[in-house]
Amino acid sequence: MSAKRERELARAKYERQHQRRLTKAKRTKQRNRIMGGVLVALLVIGFGINKNKANNVAETPVASASAVAPLVDSCTTPVPTRADNITYKNVPNDSGKTTALSLTTNCGDIEIALDSAAPKTATIMSFLARNKYFDATPCHRLTTSGIFVLQCGDPTGSGSGGPGFKFADENLPAATNGTFTYPRGTVAMANSGANTNGSQFFLVYKDSPLPPNYSVWGQITKGLDVIDAVAGAGVVDGAGDGAPAQPVTIATATAQ
Please, are residues 99 and 254 in contact by the beta-carbon 8 Å criterion? Predict the structure, then answer.
């Protein structure tokens, strides 16, 4: 091979290597820019979760993700969540007749038909809705592995907030071998043990096997597609349990 041909081949090899280095550097810059944006989002969220409770729907501390921009096309930027947590000294006794609750969220409306087999729970949840307890509050927890629920009802967004009172369980499912499959569309109370219901509740978007420890008080009649879309965006850190990557806030809750 002539010296000229060797120089040409060497030059071509150098140009190929140089182009690969440029391409790699460009991809690295793009990846770093994306990761930087994700890191900022995580810092804004202030995310934290108790991983040991991944397979139950107890009241679980998780921070609000309401400051993050929408990821799902059908969602808008969530309304700012309020800073206060209204509390009551006693369990309310609401005489108003209610058959349904409507949740207006930044990702769409969710309508819940109340279960007549849980009259006390329905009464209390209706009272809280009438008194704007759920207005401007986040749905602070999403599970996408093992069980499939979106959890809401805590004004603090921490997973440990509540209305200042606890009330007894009712309309608990009948268990088979210690578990019960809560069907898609079920609305039930979250709790931290027997007879510790407060204001937190969960919306089942896919059949979920759980202990029969959660009071069933409603059925979703509209808006399962809203929850499906939020669930499709996943959890903020890619885990199976935590703050939803697509922030969801209840702008208003209405008792009908």
Answer: no
Share of the chain above pLDDT 90, in %: 64
What pTM does this model have? 0.76
Q: What share of the chain in percent tops pLDDT 70?
A: 72
Tell whether 154 and 251 lie within a shared domain.
yes
Give the integer Cα–Cα distance in Å for 74 and 70.
Answer: 9
Q: Which helix (DSSP H) or strand (DSSP E) does residue 93 occupy?
A: none
Give me the domain span that covers residue 151.
Answer: 49-255
The answer on 57 and 14 residing in a single domain is no
Burial 210-220 (b: 16+ CB within 10 A, else e): bebbbbbbbbb
Q: Whole-angstrom Cα distance, residue 205 to residue 253? A: 19
Q: What backbone phi and psi angles, to 5 degrees, belong to 60?
A: -115, 125
Determine the 3-state secondary structure of 121 from DSSP. Answer: helix
Three-state secondary-structure class, residue 152: strand
Judge if 31 and 109 occupy the same domain. Answer: no
- Tokens representing 213 are 């420890």
Q: What is the pLDDT of residue 98?
A: 87
| Residue 250: strand, helix, or coil | strand
d(CA 204, CA 183): 7
